[in-house]
Amino acid sequence: MKVLVVGSGGREHALVWKLKQSPSCGEIICAPGNPGIGKLADCFPILAADTLHLADFAKEQAVDLVAVGPERPLANGLADELQAAGIPCFGPGEAGARIEWSKLFAKNLMLKWGIPTAPFAFFNDPSKAKDYIRKKWAAGQQVVVKADGLCEGKGVYVPESEEEALRAVGIIMTEKKFGLAGEWVVVEERLFGQELTIQAITDGRKLVILPPARDYKYRNAGDKGPMTGGMGAYAPVPIATEQLLAEIKETILQPAIKGFACEGIAYRGVLYAGLMIVEGKPYALEFNCRLGDPEAQAVLPVIDEDILQLFFATATGNLTEDRIISASRSAVCVVIASEGYGYKQEYPNQVITHLDWAADILKEDGFVFHSNTKWQNSKLVTNGGRVLTVTAWDKSLVRAGSLANYAASKICFAGSYFRPDIGYQTLHYQRST
Ligand code: AMP
Ligand code: GLY
């Protein structure tokens, strides 16, 4: 098969790396790709958001499958364009992707289909949102404030005080930090528990659940600082027992795909559920329409399965059974970000060195995925934001964590930053038992 992967981040690097291992993969190409992906696949400079151009390109290249990494092209209808051209696409159409591009839609779907989630209210008037927050806070209820639309994982505020919550409404609705994506806000009750990411592959009828992961969304160690797209992840997660996965399937994943089916939406791709486990019960915080980044960099390396066959069966509506894919080992991934990532300034154009040293440490037990790098005057440099993701794997989660941190510590660029505590809940637990 000839496969086109769309996207340019660490998730897409991991996808290309994994798809290339499939015996059925003849040729793999990527648009636009990045310098790391360029070592595994031919890259073509078409932006992921340029859907019409991408669909034409897929036709021209006569690809057998397109696997879409990020949400933006899906929200822009890339899968619909490809379907019209008769090219199987792993990733839902615009209507299915709405579960990610509109929190309003997602929350209403949860309400309609009885999916457990935090109680919420929607506002397009900042003063009404603020009144609601004041009332909630006065009643002793903490809240979370979320922009309705796509904000690259940065449109959610988990305030520690009423003032911070009111300020979040101002940032989203008055200062319009996220533009139109912040025209509406969701204010929802804050849940306390353990976060869990469950990613299921679905053709709209059957569900194949991937190994569970935990993502670390706060920028700083100890889950402090601003929200980011994700600073690291590990998989599998011991609290996600078979029993819990069965409950998540029954109460969260199945009702969601039933909701799509009832609305006549063919959903083919990844259904990502961001969950909070509160006293053993799963609640949905959000749905995404694609693999998580950096969850993909932790989950794909622990799957011993031909994912190309799985993606193709999904894209063509031919999944045959519901099942759970178990992890063959544990993996920890650590994101190395640019100075200022999550705050204001991000310093691009910093020369990256010592990748070979990290690779020597990891050997066959890990990989350095490129998240946001570029070539400049024949030198590999940072391009702002999350720059690299270092993944290590092992039978022992503790060893995988140590290896990923050790390798990440060798990579140099000015202002580099990574969280040294990815996996801390489980690592500390395992070390002390
Ligand atoms: P979301 O994009 O909706 O998943 O939100 C991003 C992050 O915000 C989540 O991973 C949680 O860490 C946090 N969050 C979102 N909703 C809630 C909630 N209702 N209670 C507590 N934390 C939340
Ligand atoms: N890491 C969270 C996400 O990809 O949405």
From TrEMBL:
<keyword id="KW-0067">ATP-binding</keyword>
<dbReference type="InterPro" id="IPR020562">
    <property type="entry name" value="PRibGlycinamide_synth_N"/>
</dbReference>
<feature type="domain" description="ATP-grasp">
    <location>
        <begin position="107"/>
        <end position="316"/>
    </location>
</feature>
<dbReference type="InterPro" id="IPR013815">
    <property type="entry name" value="ATP_grasp_subdomain_1"/>
</dbReference>
<dbReference type="Pfam" id="PF02843">
    <property type="entry name" value="GARS_C"/>
</dbReference>
<dbReference type="GO" id="GO:0046872">
    <property type="term" value="F:metal ion binding"/>
</dbReference>
<protein>
    <recommendedName>
        <fullName>Phosphoribosylamine--glycine ligase</fullName>
        <ecNumber>6.3.4.13</ecNumber>
    </recommendedName>
</protein>
<dbReference type="GO" id="GO:0004637">
    <property type="term" value="F:phosphoribosylamine-glycine ligase activity"/>
</dbReference>
<keyword id="KW-0658">Purine biosynthesis</keyword>
<dbReference type="InterPro" id="IPR011054">
    <property type="entry name" value="Rudment_hybrid_motif"/>
</dbReference>
<dbReference type="InterPro" id="IPR020561">
    <property type="entry name" value="PRibGlycinamid_synth_ATP-grasp"/>
</dbReference>
<dbReference type="GO" id="GO:0006189">
    <property type="term" value="P:'de novo' IMP biosynthetic process"/>
</dbReference>
<dbReference type="InterPro" id="IPR020559">
    <property type="entry name" value="PRibGlycinamide_synth_CS"/>
</dbReference>
<dbReference type="InterPro" id="IPR011761">
    <property type="entry name" value="ATP-grasp"/>
</dbReference>
<comment type="pathway">
    <text>Purine metabolism; IMP biosynthesis via de novo pathway; N(1)-(5-phospho-D-ribosyl)glycinamide from 5-phospho-alpha-D-ribose 1-diphosphate: step 2/2.</text>
</comment>
<dbReference type="InterPro" id="IPR000115">
    <property type="entry name" value="PRibGlycinamide_synth"/>
</dbReference>
<dbReference type="Pfam" id="PF02844">
    <property type="entry name" value="GARS_N"/>
</dbReference>
<dbReference type="GO" id="GO:0005524">
    <property type="term" value="F:ATP binding"/>
</dbReference>
<comment type="similarity">
    <text>Belongs to the GARS family.</text>
</comment>
<dbReference type="Pfam" id="PF01071">
    <property type="entry name" value="GARS_A"/>
</dbReference>
<keyword id="KW-0464">Manganese</keyword>
<dbReference type="GO" id="GO:0009113">
    <property type="term" value="P:purine nucleobase biosynthetic process"/>
</dbReference>
<dbReference type="InterPro" id="IPR037123">
    <property type="entry name" value="PRibGlycinamide_synth_C_sf"/>
</dbReference>
<dbReference type="InterPro" id="IPR020560">
    <property type="entry name" value="PRibGlycinamide_synth_C-dom"/>
</dbReference>
<keyword id="KW-0547">Nucleotide-binding</keyword>
<dbReference type="InterPro" id="IPR016185">
    <property type="entry name" value="PreATP-grasp_dom_sf"/>
</dbReference>
<keyword id="KW-0436">Ligase</keyword>
<keyword id="KW-0479">Metal-binding</keyword>
